[in-house]
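Lab notebook, bench 4. We co-purified these components, and the gel suggests they stay together. Before we commit to crystallization screens, I want a quick structural picture of the whole thing.
Request: model the full complex, all chains together.
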Amino acid sequence: MGSKTKRTLIVLISFIMCLSMTGCFDKREVDDLVNPIAIGFDKGQGRSIKMTLQIAIPTKVAGGGEGGGGGGGKESVSYTTVEAPSIYSGLNMINSYVSKQLNMSQIKVLVFSEELAREGVEKYINALMRGREFRPNSYVLVARGSGNAAERYLRAVEPELESNPAKYYEMVLSAYSYTGFSANTSLMNFYKNMVNEASQPLAVLADISKFEKSDDINTDNSTYREKGRDLPLEGDFKAGDMPKVGTTKSEIMGLAVFNGSKMVGEFDGEETQLQLMLEGDFGYSYVTIPDPLVEDYVVLLNIKQNRNPNRSVEIVNGKPNIKVKVFLEADILSIQSGINYESLEMVNILETYAEDFFKKGITRMLEKTARELKTDTAGFGKEMKGKFLTWDEWIDFNWIEKYPDSKFEINVDLKIRRPGLMLRSNPATGIEVGEE
Amino acid sequence: MNNIITFGSHEAICLLITMISTKAILNFPSTMAQIGGPAAWILAIYVSILVIIAFYFISKLYSKFEGKDIIDIGGILGGKVLKILTGVLIIIFLIALSSFYLRNFSEEMKTMGFTMSPIGFVMLFFVLGMIISAYKGFEALIRFQSILVPITVISFSLFIIALIPSMRIDNIKPILGLGPFNIFVKGALRISDFSELIFLFLLPPFVKKSSVYNKAGFVGLTICSVVLISLTFSFVSIYPYPVSIEALLPAYELARIIKFGRFFERAESILVITWATIAFMYLSTSFYFLLHVFKKTFDLQYFQPLIMPLALVIMSLSLIPKRLISSISLEADVFRSISWIIAFVLPVLILIIARAVSRKKATTLLESARSVIAFL
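Here is the predicted assembly.
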């Protein structure tokens, strides 16, 4: 073959390739796709499910259109609900009336209604795990309440500060690193715990605020009385019960506790923080504790967890004896009573009291998981699993049945490191009204 | 094109890494997990050690046959008959290997990114690559590999580093997994996963010197072992048993969970490109060696006329399994359970007999010389 012919052939082939290889069977124009960012599952009639999609409107999110700058809240999303026998058949049905093809790869949250979660979510989780488009990092949520709780929750989500609703979900669900009121309940984590013998799955609790006006606010649904407290602290609430009003109706606080694939209970905000501490996933958070010396006053600490907890499990008389030592650090944020807890003489009193506060909380929370919920949310089974040499020995041991009989020995080591910008507290001077 | 080129240890190592480590991105980690459970990584270490020991003995046996491949040695030992027999067995092995991998690579590529494309269409791209590289010759292929393999190994290292935050030591317990019998007895047969070592027995004419051959073998096998062990360890420490045996594409599943902040995720898209490159290198190399062995076995002058027919045969064979699961189980359970016979037993047998015969010949020659001297 002459070099001229060869060159002509190469040019010809290149030209043909340019035309024929611009797309293939899988080509999908970005403009032809629509990206749902959240999906909600409610119980349908019979064996079917009700599926709600929250779909991002690209022009609004990107700040297109006349106004520019992007829409906020509901403007940037649209909703659709369909009742279908399964997830994928539902998507098929939606595809038939939505002008663009659904692309599920941008899904950030998967919301199950409480009703559905209590029935069991195994078949849905399996389907989501098998699908290539669903992301393993999507968060799993449980919407509290009866009926179509998932749909209700999704329709109430109105991000005020974000024009991009996907970013809103990412930000609000990763806030656990600085609040401790939720956890990383990614689809992958949920699935791994669901099929695992050593730990059980958790999902973030979500709901809509019950209060319309600030005058309506009450703490009736707070969990503080169950804990024997006189007043509620910030962690004594679950999603939907928080004493707040505002334009953002949706709330995220606490965790839904599962046994296998079925929801069996709930953690409030404080229990969620303690759960994170037990797993070593607690970042930092402001925590209020009662003042050790003066009644009705509180001390505010910025608690951090810089070391993983020491955990061990022994079998004593056929029952698991679980020992945990949690290491915490704290900075003082506020001392309402004005007592000088910053001083070297007084700091021990505060430390010991705070240690006892967390110790009681963790023990109460673990007792609840063992006796009431019968589910190992903190994954102590992982410690137990390490004591066996082979998988068969571990499975024969049947940890899940033994966990409810567990005894807990909790130790907390809390060190107050810094006093904030004040080295000591001075009480206010003056005469109280009515005092001579 | 038909002149035998020679290359150094770097190229030989790259070739070995391409051929053996490739299965790390296929089903190797989940196969190890099926046998060893949480102890899949111990099994990977065990199999790697077995292979390196096996190679040590093979290299000792090979020392007498510098610059000769296994077909040449077959010819020396048993004339044309044994040469053809050895060649045919290797041809069958390479055809099966290429067919299984062509199907698996294409199917998995389809699962990852080309869900709507017909399997034949995806396959065609790999087959075209095989054909073009065969026409371009071995030098182009080996040069391509010697540039891309180091880049791939560095990317792989970064991939493993990115996975470290997700690893949990708890997931590899109980430490002996599905039991010592599974790991050390059943697992020993998984030496077949290193069957691509056979390419090393075809390399001597290209590397000439025994020292280069030995270095390539040991260094190549060590790097392959590190790759396979590290990926298996990452996989089972991130996906606890029994989740670890569910994954069709372990490396893809691992890439899906890589996330740094809100801005860096979806690393699997990079993996798809790397995947295609590795698949291309693997299939082209095995196809080239198939043509080379065919030519050598039947003393042909050129192999170019064989390129199209053999490519067609491989593509047709790879389409025989009706479903992906059949293809994977045929490869993992049937092919790999017997491939060690061709990859390890056949060369070792030939080498042992050839060594014994050459020693006997030498002794006979020495005795004849002595008797001639005595007679004189």
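Residues 269-424 of chain A form a domain with the GMP Synthetase; Chain A, domain 3 fold (CATH 3.30.300.210). Worth comparing against the SEC data before the next meeting. Residues 274 and 362 of chain A are 6 Å apart (CA to CA).
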